[in-house]
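Q: what sequence does this backbone want?
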């Protein structure tokens, strides 16, 4: 069955609550809104990332992720992989 039981759903929620982290990264090298969009997309694509919001004007990326699945360094790596810089 593809349906999730109520039990497994609540377990998952507890799990998320314990290991969820929200960080803001400084992103360098963006020169327009589509750069920001590209950064946002690679972050969102990363398993374990719950949400990603990149502010082009502020040059910052706000990422909510599950520390049990993905590390800050992995997120930074994804950003540098597509040609930008990332620092905490
Ligand atoms: Cu651009």
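A:
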């Amino acid at each position: 069955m593809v349906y999730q039981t109520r039990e497994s759903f609540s377990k998952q929620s507890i799990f998320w609550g314990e290991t969820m982290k929200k960080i803001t990264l400084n992103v360098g090298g963006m020169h327009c809104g589509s750069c920001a969009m590209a950064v946002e997309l690679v972050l969102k694509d990363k398993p374990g990332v719950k949400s990603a919001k990149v502010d082009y004007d502020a040059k910052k990326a706000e990422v909510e992720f599950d520390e049990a699945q993905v590390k800050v360094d992995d997120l930074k790596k994804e950003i540098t992989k597509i040609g930008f810089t990332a620092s905490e």
